[in-house]
Design goal:
The protein is an alpha/beta fold. Helix content is about 35%, strand content about 30%. It comes from Candidatus Magnetominusculus xianensis.
Length: about 180
């Protein structure tokens, strides 16, 4: 490919991206650069969901350049209140495929404990389903793996809502007088 053609393709790609609402987000555009993940309450009968979500949130924040710090001015707290495992397909009168659905509500708080953003009734945006094998052990292992996957999906969506949908921070040099 000729060098001139590369520049034309690059320019065309940039025009398309800029016209579709996509934008680059820099560190200065984020509402915060660190966060404390506070208490996540699991009000379901399924154990360890809060631990899975905490790990998924920490990982997702770090991927987006937000550090996890106990001394952060912002904290995230949440409540997992619904966990549903539903058989969606059967084979020879036995459940052959299951669906995992998880819901919760979360609050982003500032250093004065004021709620900056509240997200109610959030659920994983994708259906996590898995097929069962003959052995009970493999069903349990698949269920746990898909519980973690559902928590990762929930964390991705939650972190997106808490970082990209909040207004750009006001700094002293940009603040109105």
């Amino acid at each position: 490919m000729k060098p001139k053609m590369k520049y034309i393709l690059l320019a065309a790609a940039l025009l398309i991206i800029s016209g579709c609402g996509y934008t680059l987000v820099t560190k200065s555009d984020r509402p915060y650069t660190s966060i404390r993940i506070g208490k996540i309450i699991n009000n379901t009968s399924t154990p360890k969901l809060q631990d899975m979500l905490y790990d998924a949130l920490a990982s997702e924040f770090l991927k987006r350049g937000v550090t996890i710090s106990d001394s952060s001015d912002f904290s995230l707290e949440g409540n997992i209140y619904s966990y549903r495992l539903t058989a969606v397909a059967e084979k020879k009168k036995y459940a052959a495929q299951y669906e995992v659905a998880i819901k919760g509500s979360f609050k982003l708080k500032d250093k004065n404990d004021n709620v900056t953003k509240e997200i109610k009734d959030i659920s994983s945006p994708f259906i996590e389903s898995f097929e069962s094998q003959d052995a009970v052990n493999s069903i349990i292992a698949s269920k746990e793996q898909h519980d973690e996957s559902a928590m990762r999906s929930l964390a991705v969506y939650l972190v997106y809502e808490l970082t990209l949908s909040l207004p750009k921070p006001v700094t002293s040099e940009h603040s109105p007088k």
